[in-house]
Design brief:
Bound molecules: protoporphyrin IX containing FE
CATH superfamily of one domain: Cytochrome Bc1 Complex, Chain C
CATH topology of one domain: Cytochrome Bc1 Complex, Chain C
Structural class: mainly alpha
Shape: flat
Distance between the termini: 90 Å
Number of helices: 17
CATH architecture of one domain: Up-down Bundle
Order of helices and strands: HHHHHHHHHHHHHHHHH
Length: 401
């Protein structure tokens, strides 16, 4: 009986089944089983201890949790996997590329022979080469699909413009990988295709000819061109891509991902009725920043004031509504109602209703001054002598009909 079974049986026995099984002395086989399980346990434990030791020094768990355990916006779907898929293919290209480089010779005279050797004679050579070749096309397709996703979901807008720019550089570098890799087999097709591509580059404005010269490693296509393409393909461009993917992911983790447009279209959840949504930034975007240690703490700290502000605003709205109700009730008085009606029917030349005391509106005939002042009724009177009337006029007895 294994240790696990034994434990289960013991537990069942003490679990109120009544007839507790008598605990017998383990047999030799059982003891051997126990020893084996303990050995496995200790082996695993040792591994965990080492991982814990490293983790306590580099905080890998914290970094990993911050990167992987993030809030994502509502409506996140399969299109959001395209970036990761591109990254996966890049990793595959790097791995298969390392194996290919073990057999490839970057020399104008030996490159083609090394490729045929690797394809026909090396164990799984054709398979690894096929993976690398198909992976290159797949990466280009995926990167375009990923770019289309971010474009159509509006993920290029504030505050993610920089990530879009990094993405554009990644796209250019990925195509450069395609161009430089295409020459490496050094067969007829790759040779002539690269000459054509180089000539196209040379026809580019301003920097075109210089760029073409740089790629050719001189004015003519030569053996050095192959070395140059090899160095770019093996080290420079992959290094840049890896670094930029790091920066790209940093921004994805820092800013979170963009909610799909159809989720952002409605009024943001929790937004106050009077609140304007900042141009281009949906409230969800702000809410759904990744929650890692620091951000979570900041959010937790920021919450009480927001709640207080909400409560204060609710109070203010309540008070305003109460005031309006009071005013409405007050005008129910027949005398006042009549005055208000008269005020409403008063000629347009009169001073604005809000600015005029009820008594004046109901009794006085509009003065010539105010009648003449049609265009700017709210401007102070031209004659300073009239000014003292103003404060009174804007005092109590306002009609808010
Ligand atoms: C080697 C190429 C690339 C890799 C490995 C990569 C990887 C990723 C990953 C893993 C994400 C997060 C998940 C997702 O939204 O898919 C992401 C997001 C993003 N990528 Fe890329 N990407 C690459 C190229 C590009 C390109 C070419 C563009 C645009 C020109 C771009 C623009 C963006 C933007 C704007 C986001 C933020 C998305 C959002 O906020 O919803 N990326 N990328």
């Amino acid at each position: 009986m294994s240790l696990l079974k034994r434990k289960k049986t013991e537990a069942a026995g003490t679990n109120g089944s009544g007839d507790a099984e008598a605990v017998t002395k383990p047999t030799r086989g059982e003891r051997m089983g126990q020893a084996k399980e303990l050995g496995v346990h200790h082996g695993t434990q040792a591994g965990i201890d080492v991982a814990g030791w490293v983790d306590s020094r580099v905080n890998a768990t914290g970094i990993f949790t911050a990167m992987m355990s993030r809030h994502v916006p509502k409506g996140t779907n399969w299109f959001y996997t395209l970036g990761s898929a591109t990254m996966f293919i890049f990793a595959m290209q790097a791995i298969t590329g390392v194996f290919l480089s073990m057999y490839y010779t970057p020399s104008a005279t030996q490159a083609y022979a090394s490729i045929t050797h690797m394809t026909n004679e090396v164990f799984m050579g054709e398979f690894v080469r096929g993976m690398h070749k198909w992976g290159a096309s797949l990466m280009i397709i995926l990167i375009f699909l990923h770019m289309a996703r971010t474009f159509f979901f509006g993920a290029y807008k504030y505050p993610r413009e920089l990530n879009w720019v990094i993405g554009v550089v990644l796209l250019i570098l990925t195509t450069v990988m395609g161009l430089t890799g295409y020459l490496l087999p050094f067969d007829q097709r790759s040779f002539w295709a690269t000459i054509v591509a180089n000539n196209i580059t040379a026809s580019g404005p301003v920097v075109g000819p210089y760029l073409a010269d740089f790629l050719r490693a001189g004015p003519d296509f030569s053996a050095t061109t192959l070395s140059r393409f090899y160095a770019l393909h093996m080290m420079v461009v992959p290094g840049l891509i890896a670094g930029l993917i790091g920066a790209h992911l940093f921004f994805v983790v820092k800013l979170g991902t963009t909610a799909p447009p159809w989720v952002r279209a409605g009024r943001p959840k929790g937004a106050r009725p009077e609140e304007a949504v900042t141009a281009g930034v949906a409230r969800e975007d702000l809410d759904e920043v990744p929650v890692n240690g620091a951000v979570a703490a900041a959010v937790a700290e920021a919450e009480p004031p927001v709640a207080e502000a909400d409560a204060a605003e609710a109070d203010a709205v309540e008070a305003r509504e109460a005031e309006e109700t009071e005013a409405a009730v007050a005008t129910e008085d027949p005398a006042e109602e009549a005055a208000a009606e008269e005020a409403a029917q008063a000629p347009a030349e009169q001073a604005p209703v809000e600015e005029t005391p009820v008594e004046e509106v109901s009794t006085e005939v509009p003065s010539e001054e105010s009648a003449a002042d049609e265009t700017a009724p709210e401007e102070p009177p031209a004659d300073p002598a009239d000014a003292p009337d103003e404060p009174e006029a804007s005092g109590e007895g306002e009609v808010n009909s």
